[in-house]
Design goal:
Layout: E1 10-15, H1 20-34, E2 38-43, H2 53-56, H3 63-81, E3 85-88, H4 100-113, E4 117-120, H5 129-145, E5 161-165, E6 179-182, H6 187-194, H7 204-221, E7 234-239
Parallel strand pairs: 1-2, 1-4, 2-3, 4-5
Antiparallel strand pairs: 5-7, 6-7
Helix pairs in contact: 1-3, 1-6, 3-6, 4-5
Length: about 250
């Protein structure tokens, strides 16, 4: 008699543009992949119009060439992080917009993945409205995926936590982290993924410094000078929903 199979542990990242999942939660992706999670990343766009300035400076550059370059960068970064499935919706950016059919397509992904947790952007971002729009869509599609009346007969979604990863100009976004994740063991994978994003080379060292700063916060909040756990690199997240625990 064969042993019963257990469902794989899964997680889902909903990224507005091709590079967002790398800067903001690449460590979480790599760390959970190493723990056996199947991490799916949905890129709603390639960031081809608004987040590819270096590429657009090349003479004779075209939209199709930029998208092709960004696709290749995202796929290389996903491989470096151990992403299980990279799904590229290719919906365009600046502005990003989803039709109802696009949203239902995302609901289908959420139900198929059945994530234990989800990751997306801050709820407010006046510098990049594609980001906060993506999280609005993520919340809406999470809700629809939980509805028994949507495509009756399908397995509905439970109640996965939605973590908001760190925005670019943190203090301006009203983003307040309540969770810090030590990504030191997989930092080399995140840095390799960061360096895949050649169209935004100016951000490579910036997000290295962010990870180092969050490592300090990880240490202070895990015991501080009285015995905090050392970390060299970390990521911060803000949870949307209350967490239910048996032990603090």
């Amino acid at each position: 008699m064969s042993a019963p199979t257990t469902a794989p542990k899964t997680a889902l990242v909903i990224s507005a543009h091709a590079a967002d999942f790398v800067w903001r939660c690449g460590g979480a992706i790599a760390l959970h992949a190493a723990m056996g999670y199947q991490v799916t990343v949905v890129c709603l766009s390639f960031g081809e119009r608004g987040e590819s300035a270096k590429l657009w400076k090349d003479p004779g550059m075209t939209l199709d060439r930029v998208k092709s370059a960004r696709r290749a960068e995202a796929e290389a970064a996903a491989a470096a992080l151990g992403v299980h499935d990279l799904i590229e919706f290719d919906l365009g950016d600046y502005p990003l917009h989803l039709t109802q059919d696009d949203k239902f397509r995302l609901v289908d992904v959420i139900r198929k993945v059945q994530p234990r947790f989800m990751l997306s952007h801050s709820q407010y971002d006046p510098y990049n409205t594609d980001h906060m729009y993506t999280t609005q869509v993520a919340l809406e599609c999470r809700m629809i995926a939980q509805a028994w009346g949507h495509n009756p007969g399908e397995k509905v979604l439970g109640a996965p936590q939605l973590y908001l990863f760190e925005p670019h100009q943190t203090e301006q976004m009203g983003w307040k982290p309540d969770t810090f994740l030590d990504i030191t063991p997989v930092w080399d994978k995140k840095r390799a993924a960061i360096e895949c994003m050649e169209g935004q080379e100016h951000l490579w060292d910036y997000y290295t410094r962010v990870a180092q700063n969050r490592a300090n916060h990880f240490m202070r909040n895990s015991g501080g000078q009285g015995g905090g756990r050392k970390a060299q690199f970390a990521e911060g997240f803000q949870s949307i929903f209350p967490r239910t625990v048996d032990e603090l």
